[in-house]
Amino acid sequence: MSTTDQSRTLYTAEGLSVGWENRAILPPIDFAVSRGQLWGLIGRNGSGKSTLLKTLLGVTRPVGGASRLGHGVRLGFVAQRSDWELAVPARCVDVVAGGLDVGWGALLPFRRRDWLGAALTALSEADAEKLAVQQFSDLSEGQKQRVWLARALVENPDLLVLDEPTSALDAEAEVMVFDVLARWLRERDVGVLVASHHLGLLFERATHLLYVDGDDGVVVAGTREEVLRHPTVAQRYLRAPDPTGKLGGDAHV
């Protein structure tokens, strides 16, 4: 890897083994996420995706190898399911501004002065500025997802990690999410890693893919084209002819 490439690297896994109680559930993994890249993390349910994400986020310790964020890299995360208590009245702008409070503890009442401007800017970049003063609990699932994207963006992360961000969305809202991510890649020069089992748009939009399968002991990482040419991946996702010329087989499971 060149010096220029290294300067753009946000996250690196080298011989990374993930699992529990010192038992690896996947073969060692090598991959690196750089600015301008959208990585798709794919695999069957129970294949090891969640454990890999928890290791990347620092929630779970590696069984072996290295899992490293670049120096000074800021990480944003959108979880699969929100823990937000919908019974508590909160405007969308307040939900987003909550992303600025991480780690402040007792200083929460003295939230930085520009919190409102930062939250409104993040909502705008998630195409959700019109939702700012609406109650979060009143939103559709697609609107809620825009707000969570804005919350992840409010602290200007370098690397965004999203766990099943479109699982509860209709087709139109799913396209919206990937359009927002594409704009962030282009305008903010961030890196993005999306874990999903809804693969149609992910296969179209990802620059790179990481396929994991704990049952068969297979890990494949690389550009989208490289991974889709791998025999195991092609057999699982591309085995059936597709009249559109795009995808076949189990592309949406």
Q: Would you mind describing this structure in some detail?
A:
- The protein has 253 residues and is of the alpha/beta class.
- Helix content is 32%, strand content 22%.
- It is built from nine helices and eleven strands.
- The protein is globular.
Blueprint of the fold:
Layout: H1 3-8, E1 9-17, E2 19-20, E3 23-24, E4 29-34, E5 38-42, H2 49-56, E6 64-69, E7 75-78, H3 92-97, H4 115-125, H5 141-153, E8 159-163, H6 171-188, E9 191-195, H7 200-205, E10 208-213, E11 218-223, H8 224-229, H9 231-237
Parallel strand pairs: 5-9, 5-10, 7-8, 8-9
Antiparallel strand pairs: 1-4, 1-6, 2-3, 10-11
Helix pairs in contact: 4-5
Low-confidence stretches: 103-110, 240-253
Number of domains: 2
Tell me the CATH topology of the largest domain: Rossmann fold
Rg, alpha carbons: 19 Å
What structural category do the secondary elements indicate?
alpha/beta
Report on the biggest sheet: 6 strands, mixed
CATH homologous superfamily of the largest domain, by name? P-loop containing nucleotide triphosphate hydrolases
- How are helices and strands ordered from N to C? HEEEEEHEEHHHEHEHEEHH
Percent helix among the residues?
Answer: 25-40%
Count every helix, treating DSSP H or I runs of 4 or more residues as helices: 9
Strand content: 15-25%
For this structure, what is the CATH class of the largest domain?
A: Alpha Beta
Beginning-to-end CA distance, first to last residue:
35 Å
